Amino acid sequence: xxxxxxxxxxxxxxxxxxxxxxxxxxxxxxxxxxxxxxxxxxxxxxxxxxxxxxxxxxxxxxxxxxxxxxxxxxxxxxxxxxxxxxxxxxxxxxxxxxxxxxxxxxxxxxxxxxxxxxxxxxxxxxxxxxxxxxxxxxxxxxxxxxxxxxxxxxxxxxxxxxxxxxxxxxxxxxxxxxxxxxxxxxxxxxxxxxxxxxxxxxxxxxxxxxxxxxxxxxxxxxxxxxxxxxxxxxxxxxxxxxxxxxxxxxxxxxxxxxxxxxxxxxxxxxxxxxxxxxxxxxxxxxxxxxxxxxxxxxxxxxxxxxxxxxxxxxxxxxxxxxxxxxxxxxxxxxxxxxxxxxxxxxxxxxxxxxxxxxxxxxxxxxxxxxxxxxxxxxxxxxxxxxxxxxxxxxxxxxxxxxxxxxxxxxxxxxxxxxxxxxxxxxxxxxxxxxxxxxxxxxxxxxxxxxxxxxxxxxxxxxxxxxxxxxxxxxxxxxxxxxxxxxxxxxxxxxxxxxxxxxxxxxxxxxxxxxxxxxxxxxxxxxxxxxxxxxxxxxxxxxxxxxxxxxxxxxxxxxxxxxxxxx
Length: 566
Description:
The protein is an alpha+beta fold and about 575 residues long. The chain has 15 helices and 23 strands. A 4-stranded antiparallel sheet has the order 6-7-8-9, with helices on one face. Strands 15-16-17-18 form a 4-stranded antiparallel sheet, covered by helices on one side. It has a 3-stranded antiparallel sheet with strand order 1-2-3, covered by helices on one side. Strand 13 (about 425-430) and strand 14 (about 435-440) form a beta hairpin. Helix 1 packs across helix 2 (about 35-45). The two termini are about 25 Å apart.
């Protein structure tokens, strides 16, 4: 084993402003932006332990050094008064003592900078000792205090390392960091370690290692992840970067969409109006949101969908400040833009709004006429037959409607939502009036007087793991031929969608032939609403989960841990 290393230092992150606090609290604790703001507001108003939270500044006033030292003294436990939370202060006492003893509170433009303060300064603890905080308030307070303490500590020191390990003459490259001096990381402990950094265990020169196993792992490219509140807040804060015009980009610098105080409410309004749903930490746009974008583009009012509008307004407000533009001219332009939008909206009916709409290949099941897609419907041109594009919060694609009309049934499909906002899957079939309705798979074949099911036209997809009879597709499930009809002798069946994970016929064949599917990655827990990955396995005649085995990271020897900490 050989390695090359070069030193690197890493400063602590800056103090919190509101957007940064909301973003990082969402990543760390899963708090929504609204929750973080309400907790910070309670810590400021009710408990008096945090400074004013609705701020866009990450610095402190240059004359604030004495107050910072007073706050640090309280965090040591001295002068905290009666009734304070001794356990909480005990976490901070060693670090606060160290900062004061080593005189690390010094004038520093990174921390104390009047030029980077607007109406309010960064969010930090006050000289008021905490008491009677609930669990969530305590989490957020601890988060802010640790950031406050760490900003005064020295930088963390690493050795950025490229390590070559030879196994049977073949070189394997490992890149990562070896922590030499934790610096500010000592305040945060393990929670501050970045998982993507690939921190390495220190080794001696020419040290030999033992290779227990060589595993080849196949990976696949992934689409960009969905927005969480943390990443959406970042996108809103940096919306000016998406503007091409340099003057507008400069006007939006440091502003973005909304303000630190309003961004949380903007997100909550979008959730409340059903333009998106919150699933775990992901924000999922709804069919209503896509429909709105289609409407705005069709009406020709694209400015409402682009950050240039905010940039233009910020630029003109800046000109008003300099006396180069008047308030009357600005408001006149706003009124004219509003009039234009209203006129455009009044010009169209719902079925005449322009868009990228086409004609279905399927013909009308009532009159055989041509069916065209419109803004809201799939509408027959020869009669009044029509199908809504959005049903139960899900928008149908033209190809899906083609299949539904031609075959009388489609699915099961995912993405529907009930009135409680919960996702569900269902097949859609046409009833006797050729109108769509949900089919949840309550098979008539299960009834006591049901007729036998004829599978003679189908090809078996495998043998039943319970009775070795043939398994076929049937409705929303894969079923044993002996589990349907009046003379049932088996009860094996498996849904085509399991916890929102589609189970295609190829995976079902693999399950029946090999007893195990590939690793499937789109299951969604009913309890936590979070996605998880698992294999489906057939065991004792039932289908269950088997989770991917995680390889434990090697631990550093005790001696080397001690050396790394010094």
